């Protein structure tokens, strides 16, 4: 059985959704930000990162994109990614890593959590530039969804969709503003919120309704 180390409305939301969609056995371990920052948590997640997924062999994997990659490979029968090794799977992995390495960290900086600024002025500059860049990344996803949605892989729901949804709830200056600018992203978020399997998870994280993250 898996163990999900989870903080409400953090990056672990995407993995929580994925585990529910897969209907695989897991134990959910709610944590506070203070518990995540405690030195003891480094014994579980060496970099102190959420999400962390405990495996049946007592090892733990971290980094949300790595966990997504692991779960779809470990449970191909759940059909939450294209067939492993297929051209479509290569496309799936390209989108996953694009979101992980470009959109996710840029969005974090846009939130004012860069960790690089020494002054308020520097932080404001970084936030403004990051929001510009994040908008470009959202525009790329908007174009894809508009052409071949409603999901990132077209007509089939996949593990990519909870991932992009999770990032979208942190939209700057707000989730509502992100939806107004990118209607295909808004459509995906609404469709995900309508999935019966995910209602309880989204309620638990406080994001079943638009704007719940910032409430």
Placed side by side, the strands forming the largest sheet appear as: 2-1-3-4
Count of DSSP E strands? 4
The biggest beta sheet reads:
4 strands, mixed
Query: Which class of the largest domain in CATH terms?
Result: Mainly Alpha
What percentage of residues falls in helices of 4 or more residues?
Answer: 40-55%
Structural class estimated from helices and strands: alpha+beta
CATH architectural arrangement of the largest domain: Up-down Bundle
* Anisotropy-based shape: globular
When the domains are counted, the total is 2
| Spatial extent as radius of gyration | 17 Å
| Tally of helical runs | 9
Low-confidence stretches: none
Order of helices and strands: EHEHEEHHHHHHH
Find the CATH topology of the largest domain: Glutathione S-transferase Yfyf (Class Pi), Chain A, domain 2
From the N-terminal CA to the C-terminal CA, the straight-line distance is 33 Å
User: In what range is the share of β-strand residues?
Assistant: 5-15%
Mean pLDDT: 95
Write the layout of secondary structure elements.
Blueprint lengths: L1 E5 L5 H11 L3 E5 L2 H5 L14 E3 L5 E3 L1 H11 L12 H24 L9 H29 L11 H9 L6 H7 L1 H11 L5 H7 L10
Helix pairs in contact: 1-3, 1-6, 4-5, 4-6, 5-8, 6-8, 7-8
Explained architecture:
By secondary structure, the chain is an alpha+beta fold. It has 9 helices and 4 strands, in the order E-H-E-H-E-E-H-H-H-H-H-H-H. It folds into 2 domains: 2-78, Glutaredoxin (3-Layer(aba) Sandwich), CATH 3.40.30.10; 87-197, Glutathione S-transferase Yfyf (Class Pi), Chain A, domain 2 (Up-down Bundle). It has a 4-stranded mixed beta sheet with strand order 2-1-3-4, covered by helices on one side. The longest helix is centred in the middle third of the chain and has 29 residues, at 120-148. The chain is globular and about 50 Å long.
């Amino acid at each position: 059985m898996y163990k999900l180390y989870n903080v409400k409305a953090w990056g672990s939301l995407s993995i929580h959704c994925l585990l529910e969609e897969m209907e695989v056995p897991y134990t959910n371990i709610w944590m506070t930000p203070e518990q995540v920052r405690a030195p003891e948590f480094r014994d579980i997640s060496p970099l102190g990162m959420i999400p962390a997924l405990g495996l049946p062999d007592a090892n733990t994997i971290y980094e949300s994109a790595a966990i997504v990659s692991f779960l779809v490979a470990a449970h191909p029968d759940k059909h939450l990614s294209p067939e492993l090794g297929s051209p479509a799977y290569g496309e799936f992995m390209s989108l996953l890593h694009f979101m992980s390495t470009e959109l996710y960290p840029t969005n974090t900086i846009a939130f004012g959590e860069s960790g690089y600024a020494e002054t308020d002025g520097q932080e404001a500059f970084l936030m403004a530039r990051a929001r510009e860049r994040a908008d470009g990344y959202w525009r790329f996803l908007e174009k894809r969804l508009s052409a071949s949605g409603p999901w990132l892989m077209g007509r089939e729901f996949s593990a990519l969709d909870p991932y992009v949804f999770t990032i979208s709830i942190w939209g700057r200056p707000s989730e509502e503003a992100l939806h107004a600018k990118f209607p295909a992203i808004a459509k995906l978020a609404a469709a995900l919120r309508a999935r019966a399997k995910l209602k309880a998870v989204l309620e638990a994280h406080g994001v079943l309704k638009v704007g719940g993250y910032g409430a």
